[in-house]
């Protein structure tokens, strides 16, 4: 059979396959039956079937993976017709991730979300001087085939650069941030302010009236833990004394030990501490015994982020757990939805933090319950 004579048959089988896919509506990215089964179903030769699948692949109805089979494409669903599909997601950072464990949680979330897709992941850092923004994109794929997750890279210049090139992106942030000067965009973040409110209310309900804050002290919109701490106290009719606040910017336990020890030596010390980071909370647990301070009998301590290790301390550290893995997974899912044109307006996904109560908190002068 010549190519010219075979073309109409391939077109007919492609149309039959297209109708079958839309009628049966198999999930996108699910594997199709084997070529042998499809040949028997549509009563065609293997060469004709392959030619028909070639036509469907151009339309985005199917795609192939070497030695894995043929899979249902996004274009098999009417609402997704014409969608090219993200073949590459660029995870754009403004700086390296601060903790290995945090990076592992993010990677796990990305892997979970990308399991059904044949999508490449790239991790890049925005140039410090803002030049060569084109370097964040892969040279192996067309811009229309790429999307970006901006990992705490809240940059108007970068966002506008992506918008001008019609590249879908989602901002994935550790917490909330100011919208001032930013174009409209999709975003995912953890509700750190809400998590702090729950944590401080926990020790207030235990009976504490002097709750200290160790961490970054700022009125800036991004310092949600400090705002949550102040809001919880004021709602209880409490105003923190100046001596109950100490600015500690380090996320390293050894570096935090010095200022933490200085704080614990203060006279008339608070009976509870909210530590803005996991490292500061761990430093309090390590420094307290050497000063004759018993946790939780003399001092209740709450850490933040839920980084592994707090459950094995003595006593185990009560902590606010940030859902890093869920944040990462949600960001990828939102990006795919945006690329498919599912949203008419910018979307916000705010994920709640969870308080994990362990042995480092108790009523004033009492033992952990």
Quick structural summary:
With 369 residues, the protein is α/β, with parallel strands linked by helices. It has 10 helices and 14 strands. The strands form 3 sheets. The chain has a 6-stranded parallel β-sheet, sandwiched between helices. The protein has a 6-stranded mixed β-sheet with strand order 9-8-10-11-12-14, with helices on both faces. Strands 1-2 form a two-stranded antiparallel ribbon.
The description of the largest β-sheet is: 6 strands, parallel
Share of residues in strands: 15-25%
Structural class: alpha/beta
The CATH superfamily label of the domain at 193-322 reads Response regulator
Shape: elongated
Mean pLDDT: 85
Assembly level: single chain
Structural features, described:
Among the domains are: 3-80, Winged helix-like DNA-binding domain superfamily/Winged helix DNA-binding domain (Arc Repressor Mutant, subunit A, Orthogonal Bundle), CATH 1.10.10; 193-322, Response regulator (Rossmann fold), CATH 3.40.50. Helix 4 (100-114) runs parallel beside helix 10 (324-339), helix 6 packs parallel to helix 7 and helix 8 crosses helix 9 (278-287). With 369 residues, the protein is α/β, with parallel strands linked by helices. It contains 10 helices and 14 strands. The termini are far apart. Strands 4-3-5-6-7-13 form a 6-stranded parallel β-sheet, with helices on both faces. Strands 9-8-10-11-12-14 form a 6-stranded mixed β-sheet, with helices on both faces. The protein has a two-stranded antiparallel sheet with strand order 1-2. Strand 5, helix 5 (156-164) and strand 6 form a beta-alpha-beta unit.
